Amino acid sequence: MTTLTDPPKEHFRLSMLLYDTRYRSATIQVIAMIGFMLLAAWIINNTIQNLETLGRTVGFDFFAEPASYDINQRLLEYDSRDTHLRAALIGLLNTLVVAVLGCITATIIGVMVGVLRLSNNWLVARIMTVYVEMFRNVPVLLWIVFAMAILIESLPAPRAFRGENPEATMDLFGTVAVTNRGVYVPEFLFSRGLGDIHLFGTSSLRFDVSLDLIAFLIVMGGSIFAMRKVSAWANATQEKTGDRPTIWHIQLGLFFVPSAILLGALGFHLGFPELKGFNFTGGTHLRNSLIALWLALSLYTAAFIAEIVRAGILAISKGQTEAASALGLRPGRTMRLVVLPQALRVIIPPMISNYLNLTKNSSLAIAVGYMDITGTLGGITMNQTGRELECVLLLMLVYLAISLSISAVMNWYNNRVKLVER
Amino acid sequence: MKKSVILGVATIAGLAAGAAAAGTADDVKARGKLNCGVASGVPGFASPDANGEWQGFDVAVCRAVAAAVLDDPTAVEFIPTTGKTRFTALASGEIDMLARNTTWTFSRDVDLKFEFVGINYYDGQGFMVPKALGVSSAKELDGATVCIQTGTTTELNLADFFRINNMSYEPVPIETNAEAQQQYLAGACDVYTTDASGLAATRATFENAGDHVILPEIISKEPLGPLVRHGDHEWGDVVRWTLNALIAAEELGVTSANIDEMSSGATDNPEVNRLLGTEGTLGEMLGLDANWAQRAIKVGGNYGEVFAKNIGEETPIGLARGLNAQWTDGGLLYAPPFR
Which residues belong to any copy of the ABC transmembrane type-1 domain (chain A) (predicted)? Predict the structure, then answer.
């Protein structure tokens, strides 16, 4: 006869938290958590205490007060009577402008350099290596300052354009002025423009949207939609009859004619820069600070992107290229249809962090006096109001938001191009 | 239980922070060194000389305070600050005092919680242009490109001046004086604007100083002076009265040449005696010894001597006393009585 006995019931003892592997990790985590919370509490408490000792309060009321300073590069209308909030907004737009421009040029240069570094041409490959190593290994701040110094010292001042026999003349048939204060290019003007829509009334976030631009975008969108239709029709015809109708002239016409008609109707003309008083007036002024920052950031980041692209291409096994050739694909198509789609899988994730780096590095703008958000909110506003804590926290929040948005967009793209795994 | 531990730690941390904030004078004495914030290189006011020694009008104030408190004019750590970093440096305790041609304004005094201890230079904002431009008045600057140090009151004055006169301009914000010079000399801006004293100092370093003119308009009041953190009144008093001692010494005729003689025994003038510590207990009241003012004055002489040596008409900077003469000579300098 057998008796079934329960296995001896183990009682939980406090020492098991330390000696029993089942509980130990939980114990360590709890201790770490408590430690972390203590540290955070200490920092926050210290800050509050110190602010109290100084008799300072934390608040964002100063945002509604007039900024009282001017900003040279402003994408929205702004003057010194506008609020600190609006000044921050102008700065934010300037940050975004240089970040977007920088990301685009860095990608173009980076991809070209990355591909050329793999070139069979010894000289080209070596030159690209030198470029990559030079830019990658010198701090970007130095490149920014260096670019600015070159622009300032080597280009003529506007006064060199003056007089009967000027030392400097305008380029491109007298339409572009390259000076050491920046480049003045013709601007787009409409003599019968549709005006603007004013959003947000007179608040600090007011925003004018040009109806001309909207009309142009709508017409452009319509053109592209029509072009797709035509191309779909051509494909269908090809499927059916085997002959592809000639459509390039239709496509060209669809692309250019509607927008040309619209521009004509709006009275489109170019406004040329011209020397008046101290400076050139008219035209669009690309300031030195923007050009220097843009150039330096693009070239610097492009060096990293080049390496990423090179690594991505090298990661695709040679067998893929050979298989594609065996199928009769030409080298261009092999690259476009076989190698790059697979390489993108490797390229995109590190590319995201380079875009983020470029955006964050744009905060070095103050070195050349470019008024980005660090220069306005984190610079002059912080200095004039003395609200370091608020301004820096807000600044961090803004950069965080920008970076997370870039990540989100790039991750979405990455999900689209990555290999579908089963 | 957990909560109470956190609160306990937080309280201790808070107390520690509170204790550290009090008594700058004691901190300085304990450290044996004065941390003094100065400009990052404005000739005549604060710049290192060929030997790396800091020299200048603002530097002299730091040295005088160090001599008064520590009996050693060289016991100063000079911390170069920019227009942007200076207030954070002072508020955070990185520096004990700031002597960086800083304008005394209401909001800096009241809102930023600083204490301006006095005025060591009465200044105003001016404009410098190349002579070749043919400009004779600031009112002719419509459309000009203006180089300006960012994070200063000059930025705000400039915006107001052009606004009031209905003129447009293109500001080029610049971080330091040296960069401003580079841009201005290369013609990247037509005009350089800052305090008139700073303009004179900058112009003095140019190769062809004569090719540049300072326009007659002074568009603002810029009372420049040393400042300390608000709330530590003992330390504020030390810096304030050291500055006043330099100014009073000039008024009373105490110079670096005759100070030894005057302080060897009581003179006929009781105020001189009180200043130099041969009579009364002024030094003790400040928490220093009786000879504090003697030492401060001995470093570089009285206010007038400091002025003449660093920025006066004999120097390349070449500034006249103007508003900065003693009140007895028609200027604005006026030290309260040592009594």
Answer: 92-410
